[in-house]
Amino acid sequence: MDKKYLAQQMNRFLQLSVQSANLPDDQAMEIADLYPAWAQNKAYPVGAIVKYGTNADGETQLYRVLQAHNSQEDWTPDTATSLFSKIGFTEDGTPIWTQPLGATDAYQKDDVVSFEGQLWISTVAENVWQPGVYGWEPKA
Hints:
The chain is built from 2 helices and 8 strands; from the N terminus they run H-H-E-E-E-E-E-E-E-E. The strands form 3 sheets. The protein has a 3-stranded antiparallel beta sheet with strand order 2-3-5, with no helix packed on it. Helices cover 18% and strands 22% of the residues. The chain is α+β, with helices and mostly antiparallel strands.
């Protein structure tokens, strides 16, 4: 069997698996690159998750489909706000804390995140700890 074909099948299997897992947003963000990329001329059901572009931290941005529709070139997830909602941010735009994989995506001193309904400020650089454990203080 052709290795490239096998890799394509494995990638598609992973995409189908993550879609059906219905992960909470914070867990979905941890594996953002496994979600399928948004595409034109595709039927999207309510609740589907797609990746499109990057967020302010340079990480893959995920979007959840709000209304079933057939995608069009000018209905991209970042502009069609009636069709998609950005995953990983609170209503006011604060990033939701996700477990960093290591130093490359660790939080920096003074970064603000939302965790379990509370805003937290990182008090250390290269912060890989969960808010409330070490290196964070509640934002007043």
